[in-house]
């Protein structure tokens, strides 16, 4: 068999939390419908959110954001 089977789809709603069992192989795809988004990178699973690296803006959001106007 070339592929292990069909993926299991689980609907995730706004502001909801879901868990993945330990040691289960997984891929998580998240679709955000309204830009801009803020993406945080974590070095490991135990890293606190305050230590995560913010990647903003993402390249596809750059055209959605307007440049700040200089009022001076």
Task: Please give a structural write-up.
By secondary structure, this protein is mostly loops. The chain has a domain at 35-67. It is 0% helix and 8% strand. The chain is built from no helices and two strands. The chain has strands spanning 39-41, 53-55. It has a two-stranded antiparallel ribbon with strand order 1-2. It starts with 38 loop residues before the first strand and ends in a 17-residue tail after the last strand.
What's a concise summary of this model?
The chain is mostly loops. It has strands spanning 39-41, 53-55.
The neighbouring-strand order within the major sheet is 1-2
The gyration radius over C-alpha positions equals 18 Å
Distance between the termini: 66 Å
Helix content: under 10%
Strand content: 5-15%
Overall, the morphology is: elongated
Q: Please provide the ordered H/E string of secondary-structure elements.
A: EE
Oligomer: single chain
Strand-pairing-aware structural class = little secondary structure
Number of strands: 2
Residue-averaged pLDDT, rounded?
73
Report the biggest beta sheet as strand number plus sense, adding barrel if it closes.
Answer: 2 strands, antiparallel
Number of helices: 0
List segments where confidence is low: pLDDT < 50 over at least 5 consecutive residues.
none
